[in-house]
């Protein structure tokens, strides 16, 4: 499949496309593959390629595009094109793209919907985009708890949505009662009430549950889907394995991009000014932290002038603290994401990480001290850097635990900003420890 995407990208970049050739290539690819190909070409050629895509395929492709890519493309379309594009939009698709649409375009899309889809949209839009209530699948098998098995079997013959292995039962008010798995249904007698077949172990997901938590609940259930209910136990829809896999994929991609201060919705060929502004913010933050570290170094200017070896060895201290801190930070961020870290185990975890930092600090202090002694033939300098290494690695362990926990409490993504703060803390701690000890013991 990757070779087909690459071939489509090559064709589109070199403008070797007619409507027939483009749509033939698209017919062999999924909408997300086509979206990927469009995002991989410059904006001018992307607009030309879009004009050659069949109208029937455009909406599915648009939904699969990243937020920024979608915005850039929609800017090029006039209102009549947008109205045509949204003719067949359903609630799930509109909820997927609504954050990247201005209100005017959302209104246009809503006018194209039937009442049922509009109701689904209004039901989902009240939830944040990281909550399962926003991403409910409404294609599911629902039956009254009062019917017989034979009636439920006739229901199966009509249509069976993907990721379906059970029938959901509701009462007269639409409240969820339970679920009946297909294997029990097929083995039962036709006259038997379906309520007798309810699986007592079948669980549900509250509509206000976070997406990652919902994916975990589904994984533990060993089912392909779980019902989603509101606070009144009214059945709203379901959360299935396809949505769970998409949740994990987006979560993984977001974490990778956030380490560089980027958004997973960023467009590869976004305008230069927009990209420069986005990245410039994080470069500016990094510059401020670098100046802060430099200010602490400036306090020891006289010491550096007298002992040049300290300036030579400073990167060693900073590097060791940075690596040790990032190891702890990564571990804690993962623990927070998995819900493993609580107030009750934080103290024990901090104690363990400090012990690990102390052990590694002593080990590497000896190694670096010996190398420094051999290099500069100064036992005192070897002791100074050894002590500084121990202090900095212990400080890195402390910061690696406390910084992400604090950021999480403040509702700031620790994967996004934790490394910037950690680097600043370990740099300052390392420089102050190294140069301070150098001032006391060498000058």
TrEMBL record:
Classify the protein's membrane topology as the record does: Multi-pass membrane protein
Q: Which residues form a coiled coil?
A: none
What InterPro entries does the database record attribute to this sequence?
A: CBS_dom (IPR000644), CBS_dom_sf (IPR046342), Mg_transptr_MgtE_intracell_dom (IPR006668), SLC41_membr_dom (IPR006667), SLC41_membr_dom_sf (IPR036739)
* One CC-aspect GO term: membrane
Residue spans crossing the bilayer: 281-300, 306-333, 354-376, 382-407, 419-442
- Name the source's superkingdom: Bacteria
Keywords, ordered alphabetically: Magnesium, Membrane, Transmembrane, Transmembrane helix, Transport
* Keyword Transport found: yes
* SMART domains linked to this entry: MgtE_N
Q: In which compartments does the protein localize? A: Membrane
Taking every annotated instance into account, which residue ranges of this chain make up the domain Magnesium transporter MgtE intracellular? Answer: 29-132
Q: Which family does it belong to?
A: Belongs to the SLC41A transporter family.
* Protein's name according to its UniProt entry: Magnesium transporter
């Amino acid at each position: 499949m990757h070779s087909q995407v690459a071939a489509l990208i090559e064709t589109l970049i070199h403008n070797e496309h007619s409507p027939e050739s483009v749509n033939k290539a698209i017919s062999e690819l999924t909408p997300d593959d086509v979206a990927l190909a469009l995002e991989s070409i410059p904006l001018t050629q992307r607009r030309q390629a879009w004009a050659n895509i069949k109208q029937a395929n455009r909406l599915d492709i648009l939904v699969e595009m990243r937020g920024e890519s979608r915005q850039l493309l929609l800017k090029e379309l006039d209102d009549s094109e947008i109205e045509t594009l949204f003719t067949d939009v359903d609630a799930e698709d509109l909820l997927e793209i609504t954050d990247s649409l201005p209100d005017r375009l959302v209104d246009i899309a809503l006018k194209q919907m039937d009442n049922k889809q509009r109701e689904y949209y209004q039901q989902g839009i009240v939830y944040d985009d990281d909550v399962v209530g926003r991403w409910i699948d409404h294609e599911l098998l629902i039956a009254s708890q009062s019917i017989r098995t034979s009636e439920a079997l006739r229901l199966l013959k009509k249509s069976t949505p993907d990721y379906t292995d059970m029938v959901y039962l509701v009462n007269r008010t639409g409240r969820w009662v339970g679920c009946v798995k297909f294997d029990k249904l097929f083995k039962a007698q036709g006259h038997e009430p379906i309520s007798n077949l309810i699986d007592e172990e079948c669980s549900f997901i509250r509509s206000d549950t976070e997406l990652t938590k919902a994916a975990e609940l589904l994984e533990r259930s060993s089912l392909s889907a779980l019902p989603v209910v509101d606070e009144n136990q009214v059945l709203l829809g379901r959360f299935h394995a396809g949505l769970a896999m998409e949740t994990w994929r987006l979560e993984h991609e977001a974490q990778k991009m956030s380490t560089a201060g980027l958004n997973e919705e960023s467009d590869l060929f976004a305008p230069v000014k927009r990209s420069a502004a986005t990245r410039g913010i994080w470069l500016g933050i990094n510059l401020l932290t670098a100046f802060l570290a430099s200010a602490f170094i400036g306090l020891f200017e006289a010491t550096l002038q007298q002992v040049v070896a300290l300036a030579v060895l400073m990167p060693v201290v900073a590097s060791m603290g940075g690596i040790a801190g990032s190891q702890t930070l990564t571990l804690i961020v993962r623990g927070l994401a998995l819900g493993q870290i609580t107030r009750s185990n934080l103290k024990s975890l901090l104690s363990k990480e400090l012990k690990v930092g102390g052990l590694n600090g002593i080990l590497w202090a000896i190694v670096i001290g010996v190398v420094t002694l051999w290099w500069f033939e100064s036992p005192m300098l070897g002791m100074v850097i050894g002590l500084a290494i121990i202090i900095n690695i212990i400080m890195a362990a402390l910061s690696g635990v406390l910084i992400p926990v604090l950021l999480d409490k403040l509702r700031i993504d620790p994967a996004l900003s934790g490394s910037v703060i950690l680097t600043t803390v370990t740099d300052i701690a390392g420089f102050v420890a190294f140069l301070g000890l150098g001032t006391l013991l060498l000058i």
